[in-house]
Amino acid sequence: MTHRPAASAAETHPRRTRARRLLALATAGVMALTATIPPAAAQRSLPLVRDAETEALMRDYAAPIFDVAGIARSQVDIILVNKTDFNAFVADARRIFINIGVILDAETPGEVIGVLAHETGHITGNHLVRMRQALANAQLMAALGILLGAGAVAAGASAGSSSAVQGGAGALTAGAGLAQRTLLAYRRGEESVADRAAITFLEKTGQSAKGMLKTFSRFADQALFSAKYTDPYAQSHPMPRERLNALETLAKRSRYYNKPAPTALQARHDMVRAKLLAFTSHPNVVARAYPSSDRSLAAEYARAVVSMRTRSRRTSVKMIDALISRQPDNPYFYELKGQALLESGNPKAAIAPFRKALSLRPREAQFMIWLGFALVASNDKARLGEAEKILKAGLRIDPNSPIGYSQLAIAHGRQGETAEADLATARGLMARGDFRGAKRYATRARKKLKRGTPAWLQADDIVSYKPPKLPGRS
Q1: 31 pLDDT more than 50
Q2: Which of 321, 325, 318, 269 has the alpha carbon at shortest distance from 298?
Q3: For the chain, domain boundaries
Q4: 441: CB partners within 8 A, 6+ apart
Q5: What residue spans do the TPR repeats cover (predicted)?
Q6: Among 111, 137, 192, 389, which residue carries the largest CB count within 10 Å?
Q7: Cα–Cα–Cα angle for 219, 32, 15, nearest 5°?
């Protein structure tokens, strides 16, 4: 004989079962409100890319915007994300993330400057702090809806009233839906405020907003097919065409509207676009964008990068030398030559071009780190002291370079300084966002270091570190 368990209360009361399911579903909707903003953990997992030339251009683009916005130039870091879609966002008041796709798609400096001006508008508007409050309010609104709806569902289920259960279910879902729409409406309002702030910044710096309009026009064209089926009130940003129309009136009033970017700035923009495309795209894509008939400096730059990635060292170095002959004071050509030599297994030969690049831009931290890398990789013990010194100097300026820390750890290790090597490894892991690994190495370093010394305090800070949970903002 097979034993069959007694029926549960849920089985004997299907309305109660449905009520529980509705309550769980609506509660999940409240939790989903937090998903409208990427958390800090997601930001740490972004595929970031470092390039001294591109970062210098972005800083020069942003500098006048920051000045008129009342932001210290050193306050905000512009961080490159290795994604080719057109997107940018602020994570807090100190960081603007910008996809390389923004630069690749932008034919003129103004298209990128408009994006940076918009993100600066979010910073000056204190939108991150306000968004956290709006999110809390939206969650409270949804929670109240759930409480009221749950009460109606429970009462209806107990009374055996299907209409009451359905009415309560409507209150459950309506509460979460209303909260989400309220939050999205708030975000749309913020985007519009940031747009207007960007126009103001461009006007005050004597720059045209035409590039910014071109960017939004691109969004509008991409949205034409789907706009008919899109609910404008379920979007976190204003509808592209609506956004464009609102900005056009403001932008065209400016006396700077038809003012082109300076020739030198456009040339730098073209060089950076060529470089990024060559480093991130298939050689065939680069060949189509820059055919052999194109003898511009940007085209030669792109072909030299592709050669470095795909051909022999001798061929790529020859092409880079041709670039240097055309612009002998361009530090980024020497950086590229050093990189080609280093990555092809000839670090000793890479030292000289890295030194030259650094002599042309003495405060460029990435050049310091490249030079330190080459000195360490040369396997010459006599160069380890210089390598340690130059790497530390670079990391003081740019404390977020995992490669710099890894090379510093090697330099310390080869000199028998195991505690310092562990600390450098820990700091490199922190820069990568691997907090667990960083704490492990820092704990090991702390045991060997003299208590109270600067190195011991750095290790102790890492061991005690708790990563913040801050929302991002696009």
Answers
A1: no
A2: 269
A3: 42-251, 263-464
A4: 422, 423, 425, 426, 429
A5: 331-364
A6: 111
A7: 130
**How far apart (Å, rounded) are the C-alpha atoms in residues 308 and 10?**
68
Tens-digit pLDDT profile for residues 282-334? 999 999 999 999 999 999 999 999 999 998 778 999 999 999 999 999 999 99
107 DSSP assignment: S
Residue 17 CB neighbours (<10 A):
15
Task: DSSP letter for 45, please.
Answer: T
Dist. CA 391–CA 299, nearest whole Å:
33
How many Å is the Cα radius of gyration of the chain?
28
Q: Report yes or no: 397 and 368 within 8 Å, Cβ to Cβ.
A: yes
| Dihedral (Cα; 10, 15, 20, 22), 10-degree rounding | 150
Q: 360 with 390: CB under 8 angstroms?
A: no
Give strand pairing partners of 255: none
> DSSP for 413-463?
HHTT-HHHHHHHHHHHHHHHT-HHHHHHHHHHHHHHSPTTSHHHHHHHHHH
Neighbouring-strand partners of residue 81: 48, 99
Give yes or no for residue 13 having a pLDDT over 70. Answer: no
pLDDT in tens, 413-463: 999 999 999 999 999 999 988 999 999 999 999 999 999 999 999 999 999
Q: Which residue has the tokens 């907090």?
A: 435
CATH of domain 263-464: 1.25.40.10
Q: Is there a contact between 145 and 179 (Cβ–Cβ < 8 Å)?
A: yes
In eight-state DSSP terms, residue 98 is E
What share of residues in the chain are helix, strand, coil (percent, to 5)? 75, 5, 25
